[in-house]
Amino acid sequence: MEESKEETVLATMNLEDDEFDTKESVLQKYFLQEWNLVKSFLDDTVSNSRVSDPSSAHKIRSIMDKYQEQGQLLEPYLESIIPPMMNIIRSRTIELGVISDEILEIINPICIIVYSVVTVCGYKSVIRFFPHQVSDLELAVSLLEKCHHTNSVSSLREESTGEMETKCVILLWLYILVLVPFDISSVDTSIASSDNLTEFELVPLVLKIIGFCKDYLSAAGPMRTMAGLVLSRLLTRPDMPKAFMSFVTWTHEVMSSATEDLLQHFQLLGVINALAAIFKVGSRNLLHDVIPVVWNDTSMLYKSSNAARSPLLRKYLMKFTQRIGLTSLPHRLPSWRYTGRTVKLNVSLNTSSKPNQSNLGVNDNYSNSIEITDDVEDEDMDVPENVEEIIETLLSGLRDMDTVVRWSAAKGIGRITSHLTSSLSEEVLSSVLELFSPGEGDGSWHGGCLALAELARRGLLLPASLPKVVPVVVKALHYDVRRGPHSVGSHVRDAAAYVCWAFGRAYYHTDMRNILEELAPHLLTVACYDREVNCRRAAAAAFQENVGRQGNYPHGIDIVNTADYFSLSSRANSYLHVADSIAQYEGYLIPFVSDLLDRKICHWDKSLRELAAEALSFLVKYDPQYFASAVMDKLIPCTLSSDLCMRHGSTLATGELVFALHQCNYVLPSDNQKTLASVVPAIEKARLYRGKGGEIMRASVSRFIECISIFKVALPEKIKKSLLDTLNENLRHPNSQIQNAAVKGLKHFFRAYLLDSDDKSTSDLTAKYLNMLTDPNVAVRRGSALAIGVFPYELLASQWRNVILKLCGCCKIEENPEERDAESRVNAVKGLVSVCETLVSGRENSATSFTEKDFSLFILIKNEVMSSLFKALDDYSVDKRGDVGSWVREAALDGLEKCTYMLCKIDNSGCLSGKSDGNEIEPIVQPLTDNMLTSNAELLLFDENLATNLIGGICKQAVEKMDKLREAAANVLYRILYNQIIYISYIPFREKLEEIIPKEADAKWAVPSYTYQRFVQLLQFGCYSRYVLSGLVISIGGLQDSLKRVSLLALLEYLEGVESKVPNTRTSREYMLSVDIMWVLQQYRKCDRVIVPTLKTIESLLSKKIFLTMEAHSPTFCAAVLDSLAIELKASTDFSKLYAGIAILGYIASVPEPINMRAFSQLLTFLGHRYPKIRKASAEHVYLVLLQNGNLVAEDKIEKALEIISETCWDGDMYLSKHQRLELFELVGLKVKILGKYSDGTSRKTSSKKPTDLDENASYSSLVESSGF
């Protein structure tokens, strides 16, 4: 509380400081955060009258780009940014002259900055700060002429040197300058020296500007828009009628001769955009005479193929069409329009003391004012003939396939309608409502919604018309049309929510009260149950707008707080929690249920149907009777629908309803239970499992059976057998989702309907599933293992030993390679652990005393189950999917943890010894009798040996290469060490483990740099070191460079022993590590999965001079490594293995020890290897060895040996390589008989038996891939 008070006080003090602070400091604090950097750049630029470093201009532009979506934050700084920059452009141009080549180098970087501000804030905000002296007009035209013919050196924005930006800035400057309040002929200095200018000729300066702008109208960049703006201001001047008529004639030629040429297409876009800008600012007297010509060209162009291919051209044509229509109609504000919420701010403030009376007054006199004024308008107003065609064009634009065109057409409809009479506006509204007919496409519905929103915003949609508009909007809120495997309509629903939002802003509460009551349930339905997040948020925003502006709406604030922007971001949260919270309020439950039943249960998206069924069950608690009768009666017939989506959703929803009714303790009548019991047989009778939707229906039927089993619906024996057969059939399906659904169904079906069966039936059922464990079909084996795992205690009690032993056998890797299946082993491990948990918990719940049979169960768990799980922890099977054995290892980790708790719980309870230390859990069974046990050694189920194997196996997985497994193993170890319920005893070096695994909630075990530096410390303990090292070498010698780097660094830091204060730490740790490496080489002999990374690890350590300075032990270690290499490299075809072995031989041959000659002789042997790349790699290492250790060859022969190695093409002819190798043997002094002893298998076949290890993966294909061919 004190901290929150301090924060409040500080915030208040900051606000008070802001009130008395300078404007610049406040702006810097809350607006442009990089103002100091921008200010220093501006000061430097002004002081030097140029940008000193061109790269700084791009840096400032990157700062401005960050405010692209919030340009208003930059507007307070425009006065400090724009005038200094433009003054430099103006002054340096005057100073250096336009002819100077240096001028563009100066102004280009400045224009980059100015244009970046224009793109963020908009040109209208920026041009207010441009200089606008009369003399600047000629200067700007000359500058534009200078840069007119320059081209950008790069099309990339990041590499721009400012040519394009300069043209845009100068055109914007001209946009202001052409508004000089003088005749331009008096400004043009070239006229004074010209005697040939007649009254019918244009001023040269004007001709230049028009010429440049015509050229830019054909450009593809932003200059096209800028040129149109300049022409709109220039040609609408009072002294430019000749120029205007000339330009219209030119545009007529362009529009009437349009072709498919790309360059002319850009010119066409520029011309239409320029005309639209001219018609926006031009006077009606100037434009009225040219309307027939331009409208004829526009209508013809809209029907052409050019417009059909170009959405942008159609958008510009829509924009121009509405401008023509506005110019054709008289400019008057209709008195008939609704003025409820469009009054000005000062009027609202003046009348705020009596808001209700003023609002009512406006609306009371509303109808009378319409009647009085409309007659006058109908008599006086003369509607031009082309307006009807223009409105028809805009209405057709509302049907366009592109959103930008529809949006422009909708705005045009709103603007033109505001100039029509009330009767004509009603005709326009009727035409818009025709867009919502069933035969229209989604584009028409979207365009119609946009048009309705525009009419409402402008007060052109009268309250009297709302009754016929609202039903259409409601339909649009739920618009969703199936198109093949998906549906369209999200943009329509979004636009419909926009219409509702516009209603809330446009009308008074008195006019909207009934409308809001009709719209609110539909808006909240969309906000909670729409598939798209933008539609959910749009509907919630519309509801919030109406609640905020329409007054006291029941529970409005509570609903707005529940359905906010962030809570609706998650579809699941919207369906299950937000909707559940809103449904408690009156008036929303039935609409929510109706929407789920009518639209979401039968939705094309499978995940949405599943979510809708679950959401429906969440609403049951508010009215169980309604759901049990009306809703269920509607759903059950739909389970046999011919539409797959409908029957799948209905089956799921029915099951979820039954489950929810069970949670509400609602008792279904017997008739309803009979109906439910007949659902699955009816589905099977109709053969609805066949075809494309069979798999989907199987999963939903399994869930349905699960739900009715939980409810314990009364079933006849025949239907029980039928449902069990259905679940067994689904259990055999290869789809894992169907199998999992069937297993969940069996779990509850067994407990609900089979526990009352006789012993023979249950025994036969158990035997049936045990036989399925050895079925040739892998899908059957997978499903049966999971099914046995959910057996209740009563089914396991009689055959528990057979079940456990059979599952233990299924956890092993199959002997026949064709029958191996990782998923079967994963499910067997999970099923085995579940069976053990069921048996142990069943004994705990039993009222009988502890028996010898129970003790046998725990002994079996200790000896057989734990042993099987330890073997599963060494499952490194690989197939085309990768390391599929990791799935088994992950399941084994979880199983070992659970079995450990079972054994330790019995040990701690004292039921085996009859002793208690006062700290353990209360005994769950009676002490054993004396004749059950023979010695105290047998009393412990979880002993030190088991603890060592457990922790060692977990730590091995915690240092291997897979992030997911490392994290899982570390979390298991954490839970074992810090379990608050069951204390795990006999863990060696527990204190050190607790230091390595700290009691932190946010440990990042998946991050290698966090994990390896901790677990590598276990190498100093003999009971764990071999486990850790056998996993660590996989990471150090693996293919992942980042993992190799982190793990090797952790090992090297450990060997340095910086954290240890014991002397000779490095030597002792090196010695222990060397012993463990020799054990790994021996233990995993001919197992390339471990041997290859181990050899790479040895290579990396030898390169760091590790193992070479251990005095007496170094020769022993090197000899052991050489013995292992002689076995591993013999007849090997694994290139990575051969490369690593050759490198190790090179390192050992380089040491000044007697063992070096043996290594050198083995290295020379590889010079005659059958693979050229191996011969070449061996030659390189031999050359390095001779350079580093000259004692291997006599001094008078070393030059000759080096010459042979360097000049021989070892990756060439094999016979030549063998001959050169014999020469080297003679030079070294080795006898030829040594060749036989260390042969690589090239001269004769080896008699060694082919290894049968499961992880052996050597093949010719892997050889070719690794060799780079």
TrEMBL record:
Pfam families: ARM_TBCD (PF23579), ARM_TBCD_2nd (PF25767), TFCD_C (PF12612). Keywords: Chaperone. InterPro entries: ARM-like (IPR011989), ARM-type_fold (IPR016024), ARM_TBCD_2nd (IPR058033), HEAT_type_2 (IPR021133), TBCD (IPR033162), TBCD_C (IPR022577). It comes from the Eukaryota. Residues 949-1137 form the Tubulin-folding cofactor D C-terminal domain. GO terms for biological process: microtubule cytoskeleton organization; post-chaperonin tubulin folding pathway; tubulin complex assembly. This is Tubulin-folding cofactor D. It comes from Cicer arietinum (Chickpea).
